[in-house]
Protein backbone atom coordinates (compact mmCIF):
# COMPACT_ATOMS: atom_id res chain seq x y z
CA UNK A 1 0.00 0.00 0.00
CA UNK A 2 1.42 3.41 -0.97
CA UNK A 3 1.50 6.67 0.92
CA UNK A 4 -1.66 8.69 1.16
CA UNK A 5 -2.07 12.45 1.00
CA UNK A 6 0.52 15.18 1.11
CA UNK A 7 4.16 14.40 1.83
CA UNK A 8 5.35 16.59 4.70
CA UNK A 9 9.00 17.55 4.82
CA UNK A 10 11.21 17.57 7.88
CA UNK A 11 11.33 21.37 7.68
CA UNK A 12 7.52 21.63 7.57
CA UNK A 13 7.20 19.36 10.61
CA UNK A 14 9.70 21.47 12.53
CA UNK A 15 7.80 24.64 11.61
CA UNK A 16 4.55 23.07 12.82
CA UNK A 17 6.22 22.22 16.15
CA UNK A 18 7.63 25.76 16.46
CA UNK A 19 4.20 27.26 15.78
CA UNK A 20 2.57 25.05 18.40
CA UNK A 21 5.25 25.91 20.95
CA UNK A 22 4.68 29.59 20.11
CA UNK A 23 1.05 29.09 21.24
CA UNK A 24 -0.62 28.83 17.84
CA UNK A 25 -3.79 26.75 18.14
CA UNK A 26 -4.24 23.54 16.16
CA UNK A 27 -6.86 25.04 13.86
CA UNK A 28 -4.57 27.92 12.89
CA UNK A 29 -1.57 25.64 12.30
CA UNK A 30 -3.67 23.23 10.23
CA UNK A 31 -5.01 26.06 8.05
CA UNK A 32 -1.54 27.58 7.60
CA UNK A 33 0.01 24.21 6.68
CA UNK A 34 -3.00 23.08 4.62
CA UNK A 35 -3.32 19.96 6.75
CA UNK A 36 -6.02 18.46 8.94
CA UNK A 37 -5.81 19.05 12.68
CA UNK A 38 -5.49 15.26 13.06
CA UNK A 39 -2.30 15.33 10.96
CA UNK A 40 -0.94 18.24 12.99
CA UNK A 41 -1.63 16.30 16.20
CA UNK A 42 0.12 13.23 14.77
CA UNK A 43 3.20 15.31 13.93
CA UNK A 44 3.31 16.83 17.41
CA UNK A 45 2.99 13.40 19.04
CA UNK A 46 5.62 11.89 16.74
CA UNK A 47 7.97 14.75 17.70
CA UNK A 48 7.23 14.26 21.43
CA UNK A 49 5.84 17.77 21.80
CA UNK A 50 3.81 17.95 25.04
CA UNK A 51 0.21 18.83 24.24
CA UNK A 52 -1.60 21.63 26.04
CA UNK A 53 -4.65 20.79 28.09
CA UNK A 54 -7.92 21.58 26.37
CA UNK A 55 -10.71 23.51 28.01
CA UNK A 56 -12.08 21.44 30.85
CA UNK A 57 -15.61 21.39 32.14
CA UNK A 58 -16.17 21.86 35.84
CA UNK A 59 -17.46 19.02 38.00
CA UNK A 60 -20.62 21.10 38.45
CA UNK A 61 -21.16 21.27 34.65
CA UNK A 62 -20.67 17.52 34.31
CA UNK A 63 -23.05 16.86 37.21
CA UNK A 64 -25.62 19.17 35.57
CA UNK A 65 -25.38 17.17 32.32
CA UNK A 66 -26.03 13.90 34.16
CA UNK A 67 -28.87 15.43 36.18
CA UNK A 68 -30.59 16.86 33.10
CA UNK A 69 -30.22 13.58 31.21
CA UNK A 70 -31.67 11.61 34.14
CA UNK A 71 -34.58 14.08 34.19
CA UNK A 72 -35.37 13.12 30.57
CA UNK A 73 -34.03 16.29 28.90
CA UNK A 74 -32.92 15.87 25.27
CA UNK A 75 -29.23 15.95 24.34
CA UNK A 76 -29.69 19.19 22.37
CA UNK A 77 -31.39 20.85 25.34
CA UNK A 78 -28.70 19.56 27.71
CA UNK A 79 -26.05 21.09 25.50
CA UNK A 80 -27.82 24.44 25.52
CA UNK A 81 -28.62 24.46 29.26
CA UNK A 82 -25.23 23.24 30.51
CA UNK A 83 -22.84 25.29 28.40
CA UNK A 84 -21.36 22.16 26.80
CA UNK A 85 -20.42 22.95 23.21
CA UNK A 86 -20.94 19.60 21.49
CA UNK A 87 -23.28 16.65 21.65
CA UNK A 88 -20.25 14.33 21.59
CA UNK A 89 -19.05 15.91 24.83
CA UNK A 90 -22.46 15.29 26.42
CA UNK A 91 -22.25 11.62 25.38
CA UNK A 92 -18.68 11.36 26.75
CA UNK A 93 -19.76 12.82 30.11
CA UNK A 94 -22.64 10.35 30.32
CA UNK A 95 -20.40 7.43 29.38
CA UNK A 96 -17.71 8.43 31.90
CA UNK A 97 -20.36 8.77 34.62
CA UNK A 98 -21.62 5.25 33.88
CA UNK A 99 -25.07 6.50 32.88
CA UNK A 100 -27.05 3.97 30.89
CA UNK A 101 -28.25 5.64 27.73
CA UNK A 102 -31.95 5.60 27.05
CA UNK A 103 -33.15 4.25 23.75
CA UNK A 104 -34.93 6.44 21.23
CA UNK A 105 -38.57 5.61 21.86
CA UNK A 106 -39.91 8.39 19.68
CA UNK A 107 -42.21 7.17 16.89
CA UNK A 108 -41.26 8.22 13.38
Keywords:
108 residues; mainly alpha; elongated; 0% strand
SSE topology sketch:
Blueprint: H1 10-21, H2 26-33, H3 37-46, H4 59-70, H5 75-82, H6 87-96
**What's the total helix number?**
6
Strand content: under 5%
Mean pLDDT: 88
Question: Would you list the SSEs in sequence order as H and E?
Answer: HHHHHH
Largest sheet features: none
Please report the distance between the alpha carbons of the first and last residues. 44 Å
Radius of gyration: 19 Å
Indicate the percent of residues in helices: 55-70%
Shape: elongated
Number of strands: 0
The low-pLDDT segments are none
Kindly name the structural category. mainly alpha
Question: Any overview of this molecule?
Answer:
The chain is mainly α and 108 residues long. Among the domains are: 10-46; 59-96. The protein has helices at residues 10-21, 26-33, 37-46, 59-70, 75-82, 87-96. The mean pLDDT is 88.
What is the gist of this entry?
The chain has 108 residues and is mainly alpha-helical. It is built from six helices and no strands. The N and C termini lie far apart (44 Å).
Amino acid sequence: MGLRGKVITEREELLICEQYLANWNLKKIAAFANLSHVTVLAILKRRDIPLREGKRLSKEQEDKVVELYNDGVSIVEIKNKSGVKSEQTVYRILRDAGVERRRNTEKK
